[in-house]
């Protein structure tokens, strides 16, 4: 029997909770792009099909790309990633790809996928972008983090003028114990 794994998430978000606009990201932050790369290289990135479509270069290199879609059989599967046809399939894919649990599975967005997997996400690495670009894709991080299962682990500043701060939020030990009891 395989053990269900907790997930991490890494994404950037503006002050109005915007994460995307018109299929792209409505800001330019080299520091965020490079810290995203440093964090995820060598690991597993899990994304929604719309985020996959939005990538200028596919797949994200030196990472295992897993893409969630409902479009089973309706399209020509792109061999540059592994397709996940329902959220439950993610755990089976992880156990095949990484049986010794050496890699970190990062949910990287977009908004739909963060919501789908939120209850299994234990570590969040978020870049806070200055301003409110009012994009068409939001993620209600403010409400999510009000849940007492989260605590603020760390934050640091950035030299990038687009960035307010980089923050880490982790689940409490009590949440992890309860999650493991439910899913272990
Ligand atoms: N700021 C950031 O860090 C960041 C990160 C990533 C993305 N983004 C931005 O976010 C936007 C895209 O986000 P989004 O919320 O619109 O889309 P998304 O989460 O990237 O993808 C949504 C798609 O995922 C699939 N899906 C969702 N729930 C599913 C389920 N339960 N089972 C199977 N498949 C499921 C569906 O694909 P099918 O339609 O194929 O069935 C759905 O259309 C873009 O603007 C992108 O640039 C921002």
TrEMBL record:
It is an enzyme of class 1 (oxidoreductase). Coiled coil: none annotated. The keyword Oxidoreductase applies. GO terms for biological process: dihydrofolate metabolic process; folic acid metabolic process; one-carbon metabolic process; tetrahydrofolate biosynthetic process. Pathway: Cofactor biosynthesis; tetrahydrofolate biosynthesis; 5,6,7,8-tetrahydrofolate from 7,8-dihydrofolate: step 1/1. Gene3D superfamilies: Dihydrofolate Reductase, subunit A. Its EC number is 1.5.1.3. Residues 6-184 form the DHFR domain. One of its GO terms (molecular function) is dihydrofolate reductase activity. Keywords: NADP, One-carbon metabolism, Oxidoreductase. Pfam families: DHFR_1. This is dihydrofolate reductase.
């Amino acid at each position: 029997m395989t053990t269900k794994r907790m997930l991490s998430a890494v994404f950037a978000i503006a002050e109005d909770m915007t994460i995307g606009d018109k299929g792209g990201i409505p800001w330019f932050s080299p520091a965020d792009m490079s810290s995203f790369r440093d964090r995820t290289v060598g690991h597993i990135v899990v994304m929604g099909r719309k985020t996959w479509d939005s990538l200028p270069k596919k797949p994200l290199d030196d990472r295992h790309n897993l893409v969630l879609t409902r479009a089973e059989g309706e399209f020509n599967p792109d061999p540059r990633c592994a397709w996940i046809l329902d959220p439950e399939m993610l755990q089976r894919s992880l156990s095949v790809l990484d049986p010794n649990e050496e890699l970190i599975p990062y949910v990287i967005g977009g908004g739909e996928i963060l919501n789908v997997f939120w209850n299994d996400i234990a570590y969040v690495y978020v870049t806070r972008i200055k301003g409110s670009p009012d994009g068409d894709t939001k993620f209600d991080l403010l409400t999510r983090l009000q849940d007492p299962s989260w605590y603020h682990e760390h934050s640091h500043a950035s030299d990038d003028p687009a960035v307010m701060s980089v923050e880490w939020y982790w689940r409490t030990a009590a949440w992890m114990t309860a999650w493991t009891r439910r899913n272990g």
